[in-house]
Design brief:
CATH architecture of the largest domain: 3-Layer(aba) Sandwich
Order of helices and strands: EHEHEHEHEHEHEEHEHEHEHEEHHH
Distance between the termini: 12 Å
Number of helices: 13
Largest sheet: 7 strands, parallel
Number of strands: 13
Strand order of the largest sheet: 3-2-1-4-5-6-7
CATH class of the largest domain: Alpha Beta
CATH topology of the largest domain: Rossmann fold
CATH superfamily of the largest domain: Glycogen Phosphorylase B
């Protein structure tokens, strides 16, 4: 089957990683996959190294109708059977191009985009008239789509992000903690306003009051990096918080921490959190994320209130004072059962077969 995937993420992200893993696995299974993404994006840089065909287009605007003939040409040139649209910037133009070319169109929702007023009415046209199937990467997103737009249940398919579990080996069981060694907690995220990072840093002094031998790592880059560093200095936490910048060696980073924190108040299904769970590192996540549907509270991680530094601090302390290594093992089981890459791509293949026959 010939598949064309549209994505407008400028940087490397969980969504970009999903496209990379899916595309590589689908090609290995005999499908043809072409990814249309932004010039200079993370996907544009990385996919050619894996021999995954890439076309770079910047639509400038999600309503730039002048680009539609170019997209139709791309669809015809690659003899496309199915179009998957993963970014809002391509939602309208790619779906319209797909409709004109009479191709099957799927739209993937991997983060919450809840709309109100006129935007809600306009988006309902998109979901009900221009796409054949919606993929939701979490149960939470599917519930919100049905609630907001009254979309029929059968039109939305939940397919989780896939994890290449072989990249994240299970830690050795004889790796015991030396008492003087501090605990280590990490946040792995884009450093953007909507990720709850200021709330997390504000929680650190409360954590230290209960667990003093502890260090924190903030892994990633983004628009508010300097702002977060200034907040860290203001709270006298410079000796407790390490900013690592962007890192590619995430498995190695995770091997050196005890737990991770995903403080985002709204999240579909965090790829970095799933990678943490695969590494047997339990996660403190907020109830505003799709993780609240898969993490069993107090057993395979902790779910806390969003936008609440006290709740985050309480969750971190409670998890570290429990058998967090056993919680990490339980978290790994969840990933193996529900997020293993081959399993989710098989579900994706079944969906393709269902909507094209």
């Amino acid at each position: 089957m010939n598949i064309l995937i549209f994505d407008a993420t400028p940087h490397w992200s969980g969504g970009a990683n999903r496209i990379f893993l899916y595309s590589r696995e689908l090609i290995q299974r005999g499908h043809s996959v072409t990814v249309c993404c932004l010039p200079g994006s993370g996907l544009a840089s990385r996919l050619p190294k894996e021999n995954i065909p890439v076309c770079t287009i910047n639509p400038k605007s999600d309503l730039n109708l002048l680009i539609i003939p170019k997209l139709i040409g791309l669809i015809k040139k690659n003899n496309i059977d199915v179009i998957e649209i993963c970014s809002p910037k391509f939602y309208w133009v790619a779906s319209l191009a797909g409709r004109i070319a009479k191709k099957t169109v799927m739209l993937t929702r991997n983060v919450p985009y809840r709309k109100k007023g006129i935007k809600k009415l306009v988006n309902k046209i998109l979901y009900t008239k221009l796409v054949d199937r919606i993929i939701a990467v979490s149960d939470k997103i599917k519930r919100e789509l049905i609630e907001d737009f009254n979309i029929p249940d059968h039109k939305i398919t939940i397919i989780y992000d896939g994890i290449d579990i072989l990249r994240f080996p299970v830690p050795s069981t004889n790796n015991t903690r030396v008492i003087p060694e501090p605990y280590r907690a990490a946040v792995i995220s884009r450093l953007d306003e909507n990720k709850g990072l200021e709330c997390f840093i504000t929680a650190i002094p409360q954590i230290i009051q209960k667990i003093s031998p502890i260090l924190f790592m903030i892994v990633g880059t983004g628009a508010i990096e300097q702002k977060l560093k200034e907040l860290t200095k203001k709270l006298n936490l410079s000796d407790k918080v390490i900013f690592t910048g962007f890192r590619k060696d995430i498995p190695e980073i995770l091997s050196g921490v005890d737990i991770t924190v995903m403080p985002s108040p709204e999240e579909g299904m965090s790829m970095s959190a799933l990678e943490s769970m695969t590494s047997c590192k339990p996660v403190v996540a907020t109830s505003g994320s799709g993780l609240s549907d898969i993490i069993i509270n107090n057993k395979s991680g902790m779910i806390v209130k969003p936008n609440d530094s006290h709740a985050i601090a309480e969750g971190v302390v409670k998890l570290l004072q429990s058998d967090y290594k056993q919680a990490g093992k339980e978290a790994r089981k969840i990933v193996e059962e529900q997020f293993e890459l081959q399993k989710v791509v098989t579900r994706y293949e079944l969906l393709l077969k269902t909507i094209t026959t």
